[in-house]
Design a protein that fits this description.
The chain contains 12 helices and 21 strands. It has 421 residues and is an alpha/beta fold. Strands 4, 14, 15, 16, 17, 18, 19, 20 and 21 form a 9-stranded mixed sheet that branches. An 8-stranded parallel barrel has the order 5-6-7-8-9-11-12-13, surrounded by 5 helices.
Length: 421
């Protein structure tokens, strides 16, 4: 469920007409619903029930500080993968003890920043990283809490570019080597082993891969405890998919996911951490765009819109589907048309949808790309020297620009011409 619904013939974001936002902010623009963000976070929090737990929002899906503060104030932790994300989380008021640092390429500088500012744990992904963290923590005279990310060699059955748990993926250490690696970790100074980390991919629409991975984690937990390690936390990652309104997709509900976690690892008495991103933010945002031209091609009808692949790259990068709807509610029974929905960038890849059957839309009218809150604004760019897309947060009947659209002067002024030119 989200809070983008038609009312009185207009598509609304909670109690704000999207047309009003387009008039005041311009297009393209991302619009997020605070009520949807909070509802989706609460679904995960409730799903883990009485198990000790922390729901860490995967910031890579949506990292605007206003969104982080909204979720952080509701009790969410944060899963970060860079110094920049760590600094954003702290700027949003999230305490270090609720921040988990993931990622395969943490630098020594990033380790120092997190240790100085406070961190819940590092999810270590390799033995060289473990050695580096030991050296940094020892030099600082502090103890770095760690989990080790294990790769369970489980096929998440998702898009190849967002699969992270197979043996050929770059993430984690092979689960068959875990006991040896934990033995090394326990002997290194400056480190304290607190648990196990696993993450198998994104946009999973079936619980079976999760179950296969979590059973392996449970077996590893018991083996490590037998080896003398104190395993008190299990970071089970994220990846639960959202419905993109295509092929009648119906991913499992958070409550079903929580029940699976209880079934697989609930008997271990560990604190559970999960790192959902897409399911919290995906359906909480839309990209609002305006039709520039209706163009007839050879056997094709094109909608050329002012949003582009630099604003929403998921269709070009992942062949991702986004439902596209007009902001003015179509009349009942209106004949649908077939369009290729494309942007103005000089790339054939700047195509949002091919042969999409949808209500007719005319030049100057507004459309909304649904399910665009995750991996939309965070992956945007200034390709073709287009201005960065702004972001808006709605709460009830009010809205605020939470990242403004820069001016062309601001964009150009960041460049520097050397004196010798």
């Amino acid at each position: 469920m989200d809070h983008f619904l038609y009312r009185d013939g207009q598509l609304m974001a909670e109690d704000v007409p999207l047309a009003r936002i387009a008039d005041e902010v311009g297009t393209p623009v991302y619009v997020y619903s605070a009520a949807t963000l909070l509802r989706h976070f609460t679904l995960f929090d409730d799903a883990l029930g009485k198990m000790p737990h922390l729901v860490c929002f995967a910031m890579k899906s949506l990292s605007n500080i206003a969104v982080l503060k909204l979720l952080g104030d509701a009790g969410a932790g944060m899963d970060v993968v860079s110094e920049g994300e760590y600094r954003r989380a702290r700027a949003a008021g999230v305490p270090g003890e609720r921040i988990v640092f993931s990622g395969v390429g943490k630098t020594r500088h990033e380790m120092r920043v997190a240790l100085e500012g406070g961190i819940r744990q590092f999810n270590v992904e390799s033995e060289p990283e473990m050695q580096a963290l030991s050296e940094v923590a020892t030099a600082m005279g502090v103890i770095a809490p760690i989990t080790v990310r294990v790769n369970p060699d489980v096929d998440a059955k998702t898009h190849a570019k967002i699969s992270t748990g197979k043996k050929e993926d770059k993430f984690g250490i092979p689960i068959g080597r875990a006991r040896d690696v934990y033995r090394v970790a326990a002997a290194l100074p400056g480190l304290k082993v607190v648990g196990i980390d696993v993450h198998i991919g994104s946009q999973l629409t079936d619980l079976a891969p999760f179950e296969a991975a979590y059973i392996k984690v449970a077996e590893l937990t018991e083996a490590l405890r037998a080896d003398g390690h104190e395993i008190t936390r299990l970071d089970l990652g994220g990846g639960l998919g959202i419905p993109y309104m295509r092929n009648n997709e119906a991913p499992p509900l958070p409550m079903e996911y929580g029940a699976l976690i209880q079934k697989c690892v609930g008997h271990l008495g560990c604190e559970i951490e999960i790192e959902p991103g897409r399911l919290i933010s995906g359906n909480a945002g839309v990209l609002l765009s305006k039709v520039i031209y209706n163009k007839s091609g050879e056997g094709r009808e094109f909608l050329i819109v002012d949003g582009a692949m630099n604003d929403l790259i998921r269709p070009a990068m992942y062949e991702a589907h986004h439902d596209i709807v007009p902001v003015i509610e179509p009349s009942p029974g209106v004949a649908r048309q077939t369009y290729d929905v494309v942007g103005p960038i000089c790339e054939s890849g700047d195509t949002f949808a091919k042969e999409r059957v949808m209500p007719p839309v005319k030049e100057g009218e507004l459309i909304a790309f649904r399910s665009a809150g995750a991996y939309g604004a965070v992956m945007s760019s200034e390709y073709n020297s287009r201005l960065m897309v702004p972001e808006v947060l709605v709460q009830g009947d009010q809205f605020a620009v939470i990242r403004p659209r820069p001016t062309y002067d601001e964009m150009i002024s960041r460049d520097r011409v050397p004196e010798w030119l």
